[in-house]
Design goal:
This protein is mainly α. The chain has 13 helices and no strands.
Length: about 240
């Protein structure tokens, strides 16, 4: 099942074309998937044994932190990774206080990499939250960075437009969407968390002026969520 859906991911999405570009999505996605793998191992239903413990949760936080140092939009994963890690620990520990205590290790891992990124930004640009895109105001205006737009334009563009539509350039996600009941029956909290993560990313990116991702093939800024949309198909197969 994993191998067949991996083939689908390679040839039915933009994963393969982007693996040979200078864009940072493949690198960011590598660490996001590694972090997610640790959280799945801590899942009381999908994982094994007693889970990964505090050290494993800290490492999961560090890995997702490395992911957003490679591509800043990977930070959109953080609240949903935290929700998943906390829920898994709540079921495993059976207590709200102890589950929060374990979840704090995940937050700490994220915070460490957030401080690394902030420190780097400060040393290079003089501001903690400056990523380099707004240093040159002329370039910011030219490329349309960080302006809010009506939701409709970006939403249509990312979903169905001939230049950037995800269903056109990553048709494999359709299988993941139509097989969602398989994961719903197996692990409904995980499905809800992934669905919320995908919807939040889509709505956020649809609202910003650079939703198109610039000169690139298809919906570049949605690539980080694509493999997670295929997980229901693994269970279905």
């Amino acid at each position: 099942a994993a191998f067949s859906v991996s083939l689908l991911y390679a040839f039915g999405t933009l994963a393969w074309p982007y693996s040979g570009t200078f864009f940072s999505e493949p690198l960011s996605l590598l660490f996001a998937l590694a972090s997610f793998l640790l959280l799945v191992r801590d899942d009381p239903v999908l994982g094994t044994g007693s889970g990964i413990g505090a050290g494993g949760l800290f490492l999961a936080g560090v890995l997702i932190g490395i992911s957003f140092t490679a591509h800043i939009t990977a930070a959109l994963f953080c609240p949903f990774w935290l929700a998943y890690g906390w829920h898994s620990r709540l079921v495993r520990e059976g207590g709200v206080v102890s589950s929060f205590r374990f979840a704090l290790w995940l937050v700490l891992g994220m915070a460490v990499m957030g401080l690394v990124l902030g420190g780097y930004n400060y040393l290079r640009f003089g501001e903690l939250f400056e990523t380099g895109r707004t240093v040159d105001q002329a370039a910011r205006f030219r490329f349309g960075y960080y302006r809010w737009l009506p939701l409709g334009t970006g939403l249509y563009g990312l979903l169905a437009s001939p230049g950037k539509g995800v269903f056109i350039y990553c048709p494999a996600v359709l299988l993941g969407l139509v097989t969602y009941r398989s994961l719903l029956r197996r692990r409904s909290p995980l499905l809800l968390i992934l669905a919320g993560c995908a919807l939040f990313r889509l709505l956020f990116l649809s609202s910003v002026s650079d939703w198109s991702g610039g000169f690139c093939l298809g919906p570049r800024l949605l690539l980080l969520i694509i493999p997670f949309l295929l997980l229901p198909a693994v269970v279905w197969v």
